[in-house]
Amino acid sequence: MITGDEFIYLDNNATTPLDPAVLEEILPFLTKYYGNPSSGYAFAAQARKAVDLARERLAALLGCEPSEIVFTSGGTESNNAVIHSALQFEPRGKHVVTTAVEHSAVLRPCQDFEKRGCFVTFLGVDQHGNVDLADLEAAIRPETALVSMMWANNETGVLYPVEKIAEICRQKGVLFHTDAVQAVGKIPIHLRDTAINFLSLSGHKFHGPKGAGALYVNRRTRLSPLIAGGGQEIGRRGGTENVAAIVGLGKAAELAVRYLEEGKCSIRSMRDRFEKAILESVSGASVNGAGALRIPTTSSLSFEGIESPAALLLLDRHRICCSAGSACRTGSQEASHVLRAMNPNGDGARRSLRFSFSRFNTEAEMDRAIEVVPKVIDKLRQTAALSP
Ligand SMILES: Cc1ncc(COP(=O)(O)O)c(C=O)c1O
What total of structural domains would you count in the chain? Predict the structure, then answer.
């Protein structure tokens, strides 16, 4: 079996390694403290207290109240829950405004509701990936139930001004949701000062376990549950809590707060060094989203004269893990919808590679990647030149 240690793992937007401190905190809740948090006896109180602590830790990371956190199975469920709640139950209407560059966990439920008679506006982006706020404002109609816009794009790392957009929505009386799966734990977030109604996050994107996520629901905002059941999460998400996963998510949040506060994270400088070196050593290379603000963990690069699937294969042989776009599309022949939206007439979507970094990457790994990537691109170009 191949382990992560033998690879240089530069695909942290797909998922991140579990922090060893998170694993340590999870284990007793898979063995010793197996009580159901809803049970009344003292033994179960340990599980209940652990869930409460996780809620507090997550609230500290987001700058909100613990009661505003609803635990879910991850980003996909959180996104679906918001769209479902807004379109099924908001009296205001049956229209959603979102963007063409959202993750499929927003696009798909929107498309499904479209088939059932709802209306969706998918806003386009410019060549840098930016959305025009005037277009957004113009798209909001009297029957708009929800505006949903990601905080950071999973493929390019481009950041969206969600606090500003939430304010526009508040003034127009429309609910605002942000898919912050790629932003949480990577940039400081203070929800208390914002007009954001809903925010989705996912534990495995910041060194927590997979299948553990949350939805922030502002205390003045109503959420109708996507999963109705035993009344857990104050009736906002049914089902016995996945205590171990929630504990891990809470610990990952606590560690993220620490890393963000200490500002020790050298991820940005590592990313910038990698990007600069590749741009200097490879002709015909460019950064997707270079003209926009980006999260410090992502480098989406386009290379003239290559096809990304072939590049991924060669990099894999050199034991470098990265991707062409989102992990969900790996194996599909379809080029990235995000890069196509940024440049509809170009072929950048077929020539791009996404490298994404975490606090577990090292400068030595950067040195190796800086050495290998140009060689791989060169080899692909030579092969393309030789083929008829
Ligand atoms: C922006 C974004 N939203 C949602 C998701 C889905 O999150 P999860 O894997 O927790 O369902 C992802 C995962 O790649 C993502 O990048």
Answer: 2
